[in-house]
Amino acid sequence: MIEQATNKARSPSLRIGRIPLWMAALAIAIAYIAIITGDGYILHIPIKLYLVAATIGIWWLQIGRSRSLGDYELALPILVFAVAIPVVWSAIALLHEAGTDPVGIHRVTWTLQEDSRFVYMLLYFPLIDARRLFGRWGIDIWLIPVLALCGITIAIFLSHYIAGEPNSSIEYLVFKGVFEGNPGGFRVFIGNQVLFIAGVALLLAELAVRGVTRFRVGALSLLIFSTYLSHTRGIWLGLSVVCAGALLVLLLRQAGERDRRLLIGVAAAIAGLVSIAAVAMLARVIPLPSFLGDASAGSRVDQAPKLWDAFKGNPVFGDGFGAVIRPRYIRDTAAPWSYELTYLQILFQGGVLGLIAILALPLAAIWRGLRESVAGELRSGPLAGTLAIVGILLASATNPYLLSSFGMLGIAIGLSLIGFTESPSTAAIEPQGRGAALSAN
Known about the structure:
The chain is mainly alpha-helical. It contains 16 helices and seven strands.
């Protein structure tokens, strides 16, 4: 029975030999995505895509083919997001490439690069089954690699002061990012660190719901310290919103109806003012504050009008995935289609319909998680998933996180925390056939 297998999986005596192959593949894929940035290629395809494909394939053979879509909450929206969206906007890109497009430049390889980012959302399904069958291990399978990335961040930071390496570089060992000195100390930035937001969201939610433990306090401290070493305002913003969101949810749960409306109004007003100010700064209506007056912020301000003008060329459906602004305005030669202002990029490439399609799933999940956390039973999973998705979406506003392997993994993790519910009906689902998870006693 799957219930017996689940109890065994949660037992500390579980041996490695009893872990099913799909679970081992999931652990390897997540660890690789979360930690490695300098990815290798086989036949021009990144290794992490092979790992994800192998994970999904093995999971399907052992678990997925015996289940129905109804066994997974959010299943249909996930499939639309991961499959239908890239198919539709790839077709749009191909149509533009076949014709004369005065707005964007197109190449099939660029389109395939951007398409591949959506594949990582399919990890939602094995993540859900990992929670179902392995309990807490289903969370640790991604939390442990995130904490390992903290250790790597600190190790690189210390190596600079002890051995003098790295020294103002964008690549160190197998890690790509920004390693340089600045007024706040040596900076160790690796794009994968956006997953720190999901880790902080989980630990804060568990502290609020389940109480203080040495592990939670220690892991949370490690994540915050490592985030500081990154000296990345986008991730700092994401963590700040996670902390503020957790506090707001707890206050709303304790407040009366009148105070609840007041708190929601104040939070909405603050969010609105910040959004208006951000748009005004990008439009150069108001100057950047002094702490944003550096080259990094300036490059984003320069991108804004170019992306906006390109969006106005095809405002409904966009230019398609992989499109590059004419006359060949690129930010990163490795991913020419990628820009730091993510949502303006989506408007340019996907139009208004594309932006709605991409944001519909995470925003609907946020609404569901908030509603449950405020008005229903307070559970750490939905609260953590909601905060994680909000934090990653905001961090992605001025950084190319969302349309990346680790960004999509972070959203998939958040969705798996919101979409998983422990109930007798889910506990009763038993995989059938050969290779079913934990079928061996």
